[in-house]
Amino acid sequence: MIIGIPKEVKTDEFRVAATPLNIAQLIKDGHSVVVEKSAGKGSGFSDDLYMQAGAKIVDNASAVYSQATLIVKVKEPQKSEYELLNEKHTLFCYLHLAPLKDLTATLVEKGLCAIAYETVAYGDELPLLKPMSEIAGKMAPTVAAHHLSRYQGGEGILISGASGVEAANILVIGAGNAGAGATEIAYGLGANVTVINRSSPKLENLKQLFPNIHTEIYTPTTLEELIQSADVVIGTVLIHGGDSTPKLISKKMLQQMKKGSVLVDITIDQGGISESSRPTTHTNPIFVDEGVIHYCVANMPGAYPKTATIALTNSTFEYVKKLANLGTLQALRNDASLRKGVNVYKNSLTNAAVAKVFGLTYKEIEPLLDSED
Fold first, then answer.
1. Does domain 130-298 have CATH number 3.30.70.1890?
2. Residue spans in the chain of domains classed CATH 3.40.50.720
3. Which of 81, 185, 330, 343 has its CB 3.0 to 4.6 Å from that of 351, i.e. a possible disulfide?
């Protein structure tokens, strides 16, 4: 198989979908790999390293897409890439289709197979989302600490407090991988941390790790009360299956927050946790609404691309090898977790949650695979 690694074109995205070590393994397995020039530069991997691993370096994305059948990316295709996609491709990357109707329609129209990292599922785990959720979660308190500075428009509160001065109040909404990462760093910084979640087992686990945090079971009333005293709110709620994030923070609740407080919305890829949330970039990461600083960067881990690339490919590469070694059809038939990642298959939308969001027709993946015989 020919595997293509294009350079990411989403704004401020410097991660890459495969490292030179990954390429060397694919070459060893008998495959060919084409890598777009400078694809790995932002993550610290030079073209020379890819060539030493056995990859062919090509000048542009068009050359990657025209030669390769398996396209491995980090972020969803941007509009400039739509015309490069066709029915021969298997696309393997983060898609987050729930807020992206145009991309969803394009993928269905193109007739390709689109597999989303974020919906590949092994039991209750999302193994390809987990490493990026952890990084985004760990980033959130430090990002918030920066924007709490008076010079950034914040309240002017030091997140750790000082002798005789209370630390900042950080409210973490959700206790999954991102929530746990946020809690760990906020706790280490000395903040007053409260974690709110719909069920208790994950809260109990966090309490064992960080005994001084405060935990609450989610109700709309409880959230509304807690949000009023928060200096930082970190939204980490994830709905499995690719559905949109519930809007747990209403405009009314936003108006009750402290002026100069910070909302870090890690969930923005799936639409965001607040009615006021909208995607931002690392170049222009914030906006202010109702006096609250909103940090809604849609690719947070891209700020640390070397760490993020290695963490991501540590998880994705086993699936890349399956797709390459077995071919898309057989890999999907053999691996139930990979089948759950299929969002589009040959002109059919196969993700029920995304279909519901857009009012589109949905088809189960298994009968579509069976029909290939």
1. no
2. 2-119+305-370, 130-298
3. 343
Instruction: Catalytic residue, from 12, 231, 243, 269: name it.
Output: 269
Segment (H or E) for 195: strand 192-197
| Token pair listed for 317 | 């590469």
Annotated active-site residue 96? The verdict is yes
**Residue from 31, 96, 147, 294 carrying the catalytic annotation:** 96
Task: Please report, in tens digits, the pLDDT of each residue of the chain (373 residues total).
Answer: 999 999 999 999 999 999 999 999 999 999 999 999 999 999 999 999 999 999 999 999 999 999 999 999 999 999 999 999 999 999 999 999 999 999 999 999 999 999 999 999 998 899 999 999 999 999 999 999 999 999 999 999 999 999 999 999 999 999 999 999 999 999 999 999 999 999 999 999 999 999 999 999 999 999 999 999 999 999 999 877 777 899 999 999 999 999 999 999 999 998 999 999 999 999 999 999 999 999 999 999 999 999 999 999 999 999 999 999 999 999 999 999 999 999 999 999 999 999 999 999 999 999 999 998 7
List Cβ neighbours of 134 (8 Å cut-off, separation of 6 or more): 177, 178, 180, 181, 311
CB within 8 Å of 81: residues ≥ 6 apart: 6, 9, 61, 65
